[in-house]
Write a structure and sequence with these properties.
Length: 396
């Protein structure tokens, strides 16, 4: 008898999104739920897509579905929320005709979430679970620094409250620990559950720093500042490089992760201005190299621009006991301040960055003033095992 599948829909496998897909698929198959990933055909050569195809498993499938070439209806020229809503609806229609679907999981529901009050569920009668990563309308109300947009935030709050009442939505998971509390006080009783899922990072233990440096070919006596992940201008990398070029006794910069074209061009033109010369790894970082990088470095850069959500890099820095240099904005600033993870940047001027780097390299890590239990409760839950457990609880 043919089994019903869990359908996971993610059109974009860049940045961190593919990892959420991978972890969701692992959770499903480990619990005995066969699953199928639907994504755009442009992702056929992505490492995750190749892994799924090569595995050739009946319980782990992939379907490549592109948007309709000529959208039908009155909304074909509408905004991005309705365009993505139309894509997810199209995917569900195509896949469910070929394969029985018991549940849909959307690792990034922000694609279409604010279209739900107007268009309803894109999955017809199939129940679904979504994860929101960019719901920031409530931040001013709970003390998180973010842009002050009272009208926009009020409208999004209203749309959010209506969206979580959409038929079929079983649970909305969020990587923001303040959103479930806000929802509990503001949403109606007939709304779907809003629950916290800790933003995970692959479970690793710190390596001996000297051994890690030896494997990476690093100087055992030098100081190292790590910038990690998908490297774009929003990482604050431009400002960091300019600040390091002006700083006496600067640490060695390590930039590890795939760069976009603009950042690659910038780095090519500016690395010569840095002393000591930086280590630049412009490629996908394997798990063992990632472990060595976090073990070997002295601090981690989180001076991001226009990013108000959570960061797996913050979790990894915490796990490896490394101080962070973070902007005060969004959840990164909220976690960093509350857990005393490192100096907080008021702005990204060279003077501010230079002062924070000097402070980090001379004064951190220090004994936190926060209550240890509260500190542990915030970030110790950010494990891959906890993520899978939370997801499976909602799927059961």
């Amino acid at each position: 008898m043919e089994q019903d599948y869990v359908l996971i829909v993610e059109p974009n496998l860049t940045g961190h999104r593919w990892r959420y897909v991978e972890w969701t698929m692992q959770a499903c198959t480990e619990a005995g739920y066969p699953c199928i990933l639907a994504t755009e055909s442009a992702n056929e050569d992505h490492r995750l897509a190749r892994q799924i195809v090569a595995a050739n498993r009946a319980d782990l499938q992939i379907a490549f579905v592109d948007p309709e070439e000529r959208p039908r209806g009155l909304l074909r020229g509408s905004n991005q929320y309705s365009r993505f809503h139309r894509y997810f609806k199209h995917v569900h229609r195509i896949v469910s005709h070929a394969q029985p679907i018991r549940l849909v999981v959307v690792p990034y529901a922000d694609y279409f979430f604010y279209a739900l009050p107007f268009l309803g569920s894109p999955f017809r009668n199939t129940p679904w679970i979504g994860i929101t990563m960019r719901s920031t309308f409530h931040h001013h109300k709970v003390g998180i620094k973010s842009p002050d947009r009272p009208i926009v935030n009020a409208v999004k709050a209203l749309l959010f409250k209506r969206a979580i009442r959409s038929a079929g939505l079983r649970t909305l998971l969020t990587i923001d620990p303040t959103l479930p509390e806000w929802s509990a006080h503001n949403a109606s009783k007939d709304s779907a559950a809003v629950a916290y899922v800790a933003d995970p990072f692959p479970d690793e233990r710190a390596e001996n720093p000297l051994l890690a440096r030896e494997r990476l070919g690093l100087d055992p006596t030098q100081r190292y500042l790590l910038v990690y992940g998908s490297i774009t201008e929003r990482k604050g990398i431009y400002e960091l490089v300019h600040a390091l070029a002006r700083l006496e006794h600067a640490p060695t910069l390590i930039v590890a992760g795939e760069q976009d074209a603009g950042t690659r061009h910038f780095m090519r033109n500016h690395v010569r201005s840095l002393t000591p010369a930086p280590l630049v790894l412009d490629s996908f970082i394997a798990n063992d190299v990632e472990r060595d990088l976090f073990s070997a470095c002295d601090a981690v850069w989180l001076g991001y621009k226009g990013h108000y959500g959570m960061s797996g890099v913050l979790v990894q820095a915490y796990r490896f006991g490394k101080p962070v240099i973070a902007t005060e904005d969004g959840l990164i600033g909220w976690f960093s301040r509350r857990c005393e993870l490192g100096p907080i940047l008021k702005d990204l001027s060279s003077a501010s960055i230079g002062k924070a780097i000097t402070e980090t390299m001379t004064s951190w890590p220090h004994e936190p003033q926060a209550v240890p239990a509260a500190r542990e409760d915030l970030l110790s839950r950010h494990t891959l095992g906890q993520f899978k457990q939370t997801l499976l609880q909602q799927m059961a």
